[in-house]
Amino acid sequence: MTASEKQPQLHQEEKNTIPIRDIIIKERYRKEFGDINALADNIKNVGLLQPIVINNENNELIDGQRRILAFESLSKKEIPCFKVDLQKIVLGEFSENYYRKDCTISEMVAIKRAIEPYEKKKAKERMLAGKPCVKLTEGGNSSDKVAGFVGVSRNTLKKAEEIVTAAETNSEKYQQLLEEVDSGKMSVNEASKIIEKDKQREEKRSENQPVGSIPPEDRLLLINDDFTKVSRDRLASKRFHLIVTDPYYGQEYLPLYEYLAKFSNRELYDGDGLVFITGHIILDKVFQIFSKYPDLKFWWIFAIEHSGPSATTFTRKMFPRWKPALYFVKGKESANQIDTMPDLIKSTKPDKSNHEMAQSTVEFEHMIKYLTVENQTILDPFMGNGNSIIAGLKLNRKCIIIEIDKKRFDDGVNKIKESLNEMRTGDATKNDNEEELEPEYLYFKLKEDMPKLEKYLRS
Question: What is this structure's pTM?
Answer without folding.
Answer: 0.60
